């Protein structure tokens, strides 16, 4: 008995709740990466067009051939408000995959942001629009619209596997991907991590804790200090 082949375009995906997205968006990407096991951060090649840009939302994953944006247009047609387009452009910088026109359309749809492992153009106009766009570079060359790809299949972007619906949080430091199933716990852990780091900074600034409380123990464990010895 033959089995049907899964479609190249998957329209329905599981998304994290809007409430969880709102909570996650309050935390720095560094906090979320730490509590997620220091994993999920994309390569620093994928950077915001402006440091003030931030993103929080579920991933719509897009797999394209280098220099072709046909499937990005298709993804925009099925995306819902609040979604984040995460595009595996294969790291190609020979042509821009998106520019001002497509970004304007994304804004009208209500898309929360875009992450591209590839190049974009019209960067000054996009900065002025204030739309969150993360990419590896800019190129004035336009793309083709000829080659099929896939939507809402797992992709590899910036050295990280991204699955449809995964939580995407991005800021000036970069982009972090949190698996959908782990997102509630990661956001819960982020609250405590941020409180601990805030207290640590306050201790440094007040002069009451000028070095980490764990330092001597870590040095003993590493064999740098003898048992009972301190700095």
UniProtKB/TrEMBL annotation:
Its cofactor is Mg(2+); a divalent metal cation. InterPro entries: RraA/RraA-like, RraA/RraA-like_sf. Substrate binds at residues 99-102, 121. Gene3D superfamilies: Ribonuclease E inhibitor RraA/RraA-like. It holds the Pfam family RraA-like. GO terms for molecular function: metal ion binding. CDD domains: RraA_family. This is Putative 4-hydroxy-4-methyl-2-oxoglutarate aldolase. Mg(2+) binds at residue 122. PANTHER family: 4-HYDROXY-4-METHYL-2-OXOGLUTARATE ALDOLASE 3-RELATED (PTHR33254). The keyword Magnesium applies. Keywords: Magnesium, Metal-binding.
């Amino acid at each position: 008995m033959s089995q049907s082949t899964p479609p190249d375009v998957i329209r329905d995906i599981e998304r994290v709740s809007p409430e969880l997205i709102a909570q996650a968006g309050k935390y720095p990407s560094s906090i979320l990466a730490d509590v997620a096991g220091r994993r999920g951060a994309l390569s620093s090649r994928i950077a915001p067009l402006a440091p003030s840009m931030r993103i929080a939302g579920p991933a719509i994953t897009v797999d394209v051939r280098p220099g072709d944006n046909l499937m990005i247009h298709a993804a925009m047609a099925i995306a819902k408000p609040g979604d984040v387009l995460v595009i595996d452009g294969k790291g190609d910088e020979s042509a821009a995959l998106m520019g001002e026109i497509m970004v304007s359309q994304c804004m009208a749809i209500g898309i929360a942001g875009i992450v591209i492992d590839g190049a974009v153009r019209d960067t000054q106009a996009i900065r002025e629009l204030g739309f969150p766009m993360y990419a590896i570079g800019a190129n004035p060359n336009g793309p083709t619209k000829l080659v099929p790809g896939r939507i809402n299949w797992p992709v590899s972007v910036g050295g990280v596997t991204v699955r449809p619906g995964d939580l995407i949080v991005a800021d000036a430091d970069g982009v972090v991907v949190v698996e959908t199933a782990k997102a509630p716990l990661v956001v819960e852990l982020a609250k405590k991590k941020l409180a601990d780091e805030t207290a640590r900074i306050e201790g440094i600034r007040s002069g009451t804790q000028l070095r980490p409380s764990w330092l001597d123990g870590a040095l003993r464990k590493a064999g740098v200090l003898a048992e009972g010895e301190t700095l």
